[in-house]
Amino acid sequence: MRRVLDREKDLTDEIIRRKIREAIDDPGSDIDADTVFERLERRHAERMKAEDGGA
Fold first, then answer.
1. Res 19: pLDDT
2. Which of 6, 8, 22, 50 has a C-alpha 20 to 30 A away from that of 16?
3. Which residues, at least 6 apart from 1, have a Cβ–Cβ distance to it below 8 Å?
């Protein structure tokens, strides 16, 4: 079972590395850090609200 979990983690790590590389290589315009954090905070608040409603 340990091998399966290790392979799954390796695969997940590789997918994350690829996505990061794609983002770094993307010539598109950058997003302001304040905008990113606002979006993250809003998404987090929405998830927390959804979790509280489902409990």
1. 96
2. 50
3. none
